[in-house]
Amino acid sequence: MHDHTTTPGAQAAEHRLRARGLRATRPRAVVLGVLDGAAAAGEHLAVAQVVDRARAVLATVSTQAVYDCLDALTRAGLARRIEPAGHPARFEARVGDNHHHLVCRECGRTVDVDCTVGPSPCLSPSDTAGFAVEEAEVVFWGRCPQCRDAQAAPGTRRPAAQQRERPREEAR
Q: Looking at 80-133, which runs of residues are DSSP E strands?
């Protein structure tokens, strides 16, 4: 992977991969770069989005290779997988802190929110059953400002891409 076209960002990704005991392959560095870029934009990417962005950099990367990279990055603590109910798994590069997520029930938009109170874990169960609790995962559900505005304006429809990601309503 060391050639004259290696960018400082790619070199930093290689270093981070090696620091976590992973081989610094081109696909892993590209996928990590995609997640880093998404994190800078506050995005949480589904696998299909990671594949599309990775292919813009490395056209030959397969979907299976991206899945393998995401798995390796998650296991190494360089990526985090979140799975809001009724939505595809999403990945982010914001790791090492105890943040939570806000998820829009309408369009699926996912936003980071810092821990509600105190040090990690910010929520404590009433009974740990002998577990050493290390993290609390909280998903706050609601409607984002765009979906609330669309609901308030008669005849307004959400974009088709957002309609496809709408979570299934829970059976009551």
A: 80-82, 90-92, 100-104, 110-113
Q: Please tell me whether the overall predicted TM-score, pTM, comes out greater than 0.70 for this model.
A: yes
Q: What is the pLDDT along the chain (172 residues), one digit of tens a residue?
A: 444 345 667 788 899 999 999 999 999 999 999 999 998 998 999 999 999 999 999 999 999 999 999 999 999 999 999 988 888 899 999 888 778 888 888 888 888 888 765 555 566 777 878 888 777 777 888 999 999 898 887 665 544 344 433 333 333 3
Dist CA 15 CA 38 (whole Å): 19
Domain CATH for 131: 3.30.1490.190
Which among 82, 116, 140 is the end of a domain? 82
